[in-house]
Amino acid sequence: MRRLLTALALTLSFVALSTQPATAATGTRWLVAPCAPGTKALWLPRVDKFGTDLNCATEQARAAAVKAAVDSGSPTRMMNVALAFAQQISDKSLTADSPCVLGAKGAIGEAFGTCVAA
Q1: Each residue of 73-95: pLDDT tens digit?
Q2: What does pTM read for this prediction?
């Protein structure tokens, strides 16, 4: 648990000290693709490097990925878990009509969204 809290603290400091996020581009829109039945768009922690990936997956698959990351003891993987949860929470406000940054990905409801030129 201590390692998870340390990773979370590192993640929050990274977010607080990072540059301002890109602003939404004009002439863009979300291209929304539904996930297969039984799955939904979920941010998952990467295994081999820093970051997260958006995939159509089950809650059980995400829980297994989170458990594996925490059990690994790797600060990078635990930071990825915190980032994945933060991105999932952030995406709750996305709709198909939300402004976006070209190339961005997002969980729009339970669907997979990609920002494309309008």
Answers
A1: 999 999 999 999 999 999 999 99
A2: 0.77
Instruction: Write the CB contacts of 34 (distance below 8 Å, at least 6 apart in sequence).
Output: 110, 111, 112
Residue recorded with tokens 């990274």: 14
Among 1, 6, 2, residue whose Cα is nearest residue 76: 6
Q: At what angle do helices 59-72 and 75-91 cross, to 10 degrees?
A: 150
Query: Which residue from 93, 104, 82, 91 is spatially nearest to 42, judged by alpha carbons?
Result: 91
For tokens 């669907």, name the residue: 111
d(CA 29, CA 27) in angstroms, rounded, equals: 7
Read off the amino acid at residue 25.
A
